[in-house]
Input
Amino acid sequence: MSAPTTPAPTAPPDVPATPEAPRRPSVDWRLRFAALSLIWGFSFLLIKVGTDGYAPFQVTLGRLLSGTAVLAATMAVKRERLPRTARTWGHLAVAAFLLNALPFSLFAYAELTIPSTLAGICNATSPLWGMALSLVALSEDRPTRRRVAGLGLGFLGVLTVLGAWQGFSGLDFRGTAMALLASLSYPIGWIYVRRTLAGTGASTLSLTGSQLFLGTVQLALVTPLFTSAPSGFPLWPTLSVIALGALGTGLAVLLQYGLVTEVGPTTAQMVTYFIPVIATAAGVAVLGEHLSWNTPVGALIVLTGAALTQSRPRPTPRT
Output
């Protein structure tokens, strides 16, 4: 899904007292980057298949259960400690809602009525929402002509994808709105995380695992109120939900965490620009979804605008 799903930039792991030589990863970071792009790109296809057999809340609950299991096992192996203060747990509960429970559920409901290709492209608008919000909420992010132009270009791309010149003919407004709201939820959650969970002393893995656990609890409380127990467990939807959680949430978080540590957040976040491309290819090739010319053209405009919004001015050389 959207790259900002873990609080990595806000809570770096504790630095050991004695410097240690960094271990060289057994798999090159480019291969892990490609794997992460594929996993998140195929997540929208997995959501679509999952909703063929389960209610959207059930898909999200299964996803969070599988993802939490992967991170819990990793935490146990690495002997990570859980956050200790009630204040941290309270902030993690809000983060879990904004970064996991809410957007995951919205995407699942959206894909009941819109193609997985459109959901993947809507996900790519997250950096645009983030830039617009950061201008107001984060004082360190200053507007520049390039970034403002990128914001305008990105939303022009959204209108192109949606076919605005045709009066949005054939567009499912409810499903599309849910997908866009899901994308908006990510930067809101990230702003909250940056303001409340920085400097807690807990590791990124500990915070992320705890966050997913709280998201699972939230869905476990909500799901029985809005859905009935499934009458059966169809094979492909069940496998899709398990893969969505274990790979698209659990393993993907670990891959992203490793990439941020090794190559930095700027390079790691570039995965965002590959997700809609892979989601579109998967939806067309596997699910046989229809693709009009304006969808890939608009997606390219969205990605260009998003890239511009993430650009930073070059430091002025000292004389």
Summary: The CA atoms of residues 20 and 198 lie 24 Å apart.
